[in-house]
Amino acid sequence: MAQHDHTFHAGERAVQRRAEVSSDWLESAAGFVRPAMPQQHREFFENLPMLFLGLLDPAGRPWCVSAFGPPGFVASPSADALVLQRAPVLVDELGLMLTPGSSVGLVGVDLSNRRRNRMNGRVRHASGDAITLAVDQSFGNCPQYIQTRSQTAAMAEPSAATGRSSSLADPTVRRIIESADTFFIASRAAGPLEGGSAGVDASHRGGRPGFLGINDDGSLSFPDFSGNRMFNTLGNIEGDGRVGLFLPDFETGEAVVLTGRASIDWSAERAGAFAGAERIVDVQPEEIWHATATLPMTAALAEPWPALEATGSWDEVRLAALKRDGYRHFRIVSKRRESDAITSFYLTPADGGPIEPHEAGQFLPIRLHDDDGPILRSYTISQAPNGHDYRLSIKREAHGRASRWLHDRLESGDLIEVASPAGDFVLDRGTQPIVMLSGGVGITPMVAMLDGLVSAQHSGAPRREVYFIHATRNSASRAFRGELEALARQYDWLHLFTAYSAPGAEDSLGHTHDIEARLSMEVLAGLLPFGGYQFYLCGPESFMRALYSGLRDMGIDRSHIHYEFFGAGELDDTEEKAATAELPTRATVTFAHSKVQTEWTAQSGTLLETAEASGLKPSHSCRSGKCGTCATRLIAGNVHYPRKPLISPAEGHVLTCCAVPMDVHIEIGL
């Protein structure tokens, strides 16, 4: 009989076969499962301030609980034994079995470096708080999906954990579950527990906050990402189904502890909502506890596992289910005139679902339908997230097909189609003073960022000095005057200045505006002492180019200048010109799905323009790299962006509206 047949029990082997794990790989993996701990594992456990254990209650249900103390509270007197000088939390409240021979699973994780090791065994002896564990299996795990955390020093005398029976109706329980990026899971083999693989197991799971979701029927679901292919947890679920979850709140030391029954959903469609997931695990809780003081330290997130950004969350999955072709219907609940040309449109979901979150400064792609067909545009969301609505403040352009339709034809109650917020023109995370420089309708992201700063300070964020400097023609064209002046009266950290280039008869210097001139570096020199600012620019191209050049000439580092720009090229295109000089003069471009091949030259423009010249009709909208509509798969070769896109495409994809070939042969999925 193969070695792995002795190492893995029937449930594990069934899942391995379902996942098409090769026999050769299992033979190799079985060699990593040892009957005793190597020296490095012994030293690893002895230096940890906490462990997570899987234990059974009298009904045979597994629970996952923590055990903690100062480093050294765990000892390894021999390679086949671990001694815990402190009992796990909630042992008495949950009636967990610590009698000799009781099965136990154990996992230790060093949150500072992602090291993780596991042990399955049995209780050899328990006396008072001291518990001696006999080792049946010892093995390490890879660092995947572990978030590193900056830990405070372990407490010399950790507080006693207390717990109470609870439910998903408890707001704290829901908060901990829905914000978790880490949890620990205990599971058990089916039938009599004989030790070794046929016992209790404890393991770690990690993902983006929200990867553990609460369903309408009270069940929980989480994606199962590609791992070590041993399938210890899934094998136990396949054979028995009973599991216990420990969900820590690393900021408070609280935890949600529950036991229930799990099942595996092998649907590729459902798992496909999470990048890297191979299946979904559903858990029906049977008993839920809310516990305090379950950790010996606080541990702030330092770095999430690098591959998590694209993995998804259940909120995103639910929002995606509400979309058709990437869009949802939103209703215009009100329109508000902001100036002689700018009107704000307030939008709420028409489907009754939640609003998708955004960062202040991002834009919203929308799709309209006029008499000539669909129109795709993107407009800045002119307020910070509020969980209720989006506000788009749009200037009516005389020749603007979309803006004229919005201003002239759509009213409160009408529907438009909305995609996901996007864009990276958002505030930095520092504490330096901020200078916001806007011209015309470029005020919209600045108003949103200011709104976000106000909300952040109400939530306890440190205050930041803000110089809000806006240029427009006169009071008739000035948007958000009342809103901004009210904020300036309320917050002494906000310094508001307005420059009019063509004051009207009703305008009065010192009352309606502060400066009568176009905004220039000379004007700024009279307003700012210039030292240690973060600058944000948005407005007409000539306005931004002049201010950007002036700031750079004054020695302001480019990393301190942020902008939203929709013209051709970059405000500072030195690096782009250097990269362009290295591009090929000719390249072969293959459009894989269309089975079209064409030659690209320096005069061909972007890949989108090259495709259109070849008779193709690829999807696109903004043509400036801010909406992502044109993204397609990059199959072969490399590309360059002469005009830096405002959003980054998904890994392995290219924004055709901004990209040109960098290699002489490229292939894309059009």
Automatic annotation (TrEMBL):
2Fe-2S ferredoxin-type domain spans which residues?
Answer: 587-670
One Pfam annotation reads: FAD_binding_6
Query: What superkingdom does the record give?
Result: Bacteria
Q: Which SUPFAM superfamilies match?
A: 2Fe-2S ferredoxin-like (SSF54292), Ferredoxin reductase-like, C-terminal NADP-linked domain (SSF52343), FMN-binding split barrel (SSF50475), Riboflavin synthase domain-like (SSF63380)
Q: Which residues form the FAD-binding FR-type domain?
A: 325-428
Q: What is this protein's record name?
A: Pyridoxamine 5'-phosphate oxidase family protein
